[in-house]
Amino acid sequence: MRSFVYNALPARVVFGPGSIQKLEEEIARLGAKRALLLTTPGRAGMVAAVSRNLPVAGVFDKVVMHTPLEAANQARALAAKLGADCCVAVGGGSTIGFGKAIALTSGLPVLAVPTTYSGSEMTTIWGISEGGAKKTGRDPKVLPKAVIYDPELTLELPAAVSAASGMNAIAHCAEALYAHDGNPIISLMAEEGIRALAAALPVVVRSPKNLDARSEALYGAWLAGATISTTSVALHHKLCHVLGGLGLPHAETHAIVLPHALRYNYDAAREAMARLERAIGGKPAFQAIYDLEAKLPLPMKLSAIGMKEADLERAARVAAEAPYPNPRKVEYAPVLRLLREAYEGTRPA
Ligand code: NAD
């Protein structure tokens, strides 16, 4: 066993069908009396239903993806105007991102109720976008004080969003397995997270209202978020950050790039790949992931989600110029090849 440093983050997790009923108790536990609820416009009805009888000071329902600075500032201003003493983010990674943006500048505690599989609720990572680029950082202030995982709230998550978001979670686990600062506990979580998600996602997309499969997927998502909370991410996430800056949708980009990034790292991270193969029940890992995705309602090529061929070289250059630590050296020519294959959606060989 290699030597390692394990830095556990504080986490309070309330998990299970119906656990949204504990929201009032969790707000009280924070000593809060004026909650600001955060949601996307599409989920505002659901949020109104779960927040009846709660000490709510107001609702911000203009959450959009990638936390644009201007919108984040509107949410911050509303929190200040209302005298909110906590934020309750009910939604996916975008909604939780707004909670984090508010916490970053105000220190307000965040309570997260994730309804996708992004894993953001378990991390200290915040991101704010401005002028086509996303600035990210880590700050303990933004880590939610408590997380309520209620699979019943995910029953309406559309099959395609579930699939993409679930692959985003698998990507967190995969990179945690070969992170330069990984450790045995995180590897256990990562392997179990991949197992749970790979088993649950095909069932979820076939029967979106299957509560057992939804519970298993959400459990995997929790583990996935926990893995990236203390380990660094590598080439795969770097590429997705670069492509996100070009305006590509977050979770779908992760799904498309993952098999190709795993192919890139395959020979340089054999132990991690063996764990991934055990978890998913197929090999080689990059083909097993590609084949799992091919069964899900997912776009399989970057060209299908708005990537322009002319931007491939620029993206490869940015990724290679300022790489994240990665098991295999990050070099322009092979990264460009990886991106081209992801652009065309070929099965990695
Ligand atoms: P999202 O939050 O944008 O949600 C996608 C869509 O699904 C939205 O329209 C939302 O309203 C809808 N939705 C959410 N829950 C639903 C439900 N239960 N039923 C029906 N519809 C529902 O997508 P996402 O993939 O969860 O999050 C992506 C964002 O999260 C990106 O900005 C990404 O950078 C960020 N992220 C951050 C971290 C981190 O650690 N900071 C980790 C992962 C993702």
Total beta-strand segments: 8
Q: Beta-strand percentage?
A: 5-15%
What small-molecule ligands were found? Answer: nicotinamide-adenine-dinucleotide
As laid out across the biggest beta sheet, the strand order is: 1-8-5-4-2-3
Describe this structure in words.
50% of the residues lie in helices and 11% in strands. The chain has 13 helices and eight strands. The chain has a six-stranded parallel sheet with strand order 1-8-5-4-2-3, sandwiched between helices. Helix 3 (69-82) packs across helix 4 (93-106) and helix 8 (235-245) runs antiparallel to helix 9 (250-265). The structure holds nicotinamide-adenine-dinucleotide. Nicotinamide-adenine-dinucleotide is lined by residues 40, 42-43, 65-66, 91-95, 97, 115-116, 118-120, 123, 125, 127, 153-154, 156-157, 161, 165, 168, 250-251. The site of nicotinamide-adenine-dinucleotide (NAD) has 28 residues, from helix 4, strand 6, helix 5 and helix 9.
Task: Quickly describe the structure.
50% of the residues lie in helices and 11% in strands. The protein is built from 13 helices and eight strands. The strands form two sheets. The chain has a six-stranded parallel β-sheet, with helices on both faces. It has a two-stranded antiparallel sheet with strand order 6-7.
